[in-house]
Amino acid sequence: MNIQQPPQASGFMAGEGLQHYPSFAALIEATRPVLPYYALHPARFREAARRFLGMFPGTTMYAVKANPALNVLDQIYQAGIRHFDTASLAEIELIRGRYPDAVCHFMAPVRIPGEAGAAVRQHGITDFVVDCDPELDKLLSETEGGKGLRIFVRVATPLGGAMLELSSKFGTTPANAGRLLKRIASAGAKPALTFHVGSQCLSPFTYAQAVELARRAVTAGGVEITALDCGGGFPSTYIGNDAPPYHWYFDTVREAIADFPMAKGADVYAEPGRALCAEGCTLVARVILRRDDQLFLNDGIYGSFDELAVPAWTADYPRSVYCFGPNGRVRERRGELKPFKIFGPTCDTLDVLPRPLQLPQTIQQDDYIVFETMGAYSIALRTGFNGFYPNDWAIIDGE
User: pTM for this one?
Assistant: First the structure.
């Protein structure tokens, strides 16, 4: 349960080759971008990693699915993260190919047939997750009976507190988890437990409740577990989402696992995605048309705004508007706000944000809207639909 220590800095340089700017205004003034820009904030990545590496009572692994863009992964690696929650063979190959010293954990409860065996043979992966007998059978058959593996059983945690639940798809009951733990131990593998409380969890106490469900699984199984993975769900800060301080989450986990029944020296993990990448990325989007109270942007639902289309998602991104002044310099546009309907650039009527955005009523075509806290899932879920695929990057050293 020792707190993870940040590794020593290496010669690896994140963002090498990207242009640096002191501010959003400087980026816009210098490039006058027609296509969307992703701006990286190295200081924010370092701060996010520092929170977990310095305060979480265990080892932090980054959930690659939250943002697998190389420019983002480089920032997270440079910030000191060396463990990665990888959910497919492709993600493992991505991480191991770019960071040879990284440790990958194959934490998907359901895998494509053959991927577990390939992960073991080609990459030496030893951590896997199951939540049912068929998946355990498949894992054992592909890995010569599971010898030398550490197999985590995922417990379902339908507890509330998170904006996006995950337990309707993955996880099992504590009683069944206990039975699976017995099977794993009998096979000669190392039994372990994991859970995931859901994405953007705004209740630290939910983690204590989840640990209690894991405790019941240990009791039901009667075997000594070798690791406990507390999953992800740690939130980021959005408009309309007042997330509690991170230390509340870490203190809650620390207290909940203080007397947890597991082997001496057992590993404790967290697998944050959003909490490590959301604040480190900003989207600079351009207004390509104003039509009364409707705005068309050069990015939309099929690009960076997919998460806004999720029915349960009520959060919004901090934003500001920039325009060119009469002197040709970029300034922030201020003034009274009004609601605007926002369309993306594609030829699909579904390419519209689900609710209006409050923006200065004087906003015009060719103004720029800067959306902050855009690092999680938005970039991961962008598509190339209709030929639009945002992929221009820069680094903001200030702000």
Answer: 0.94
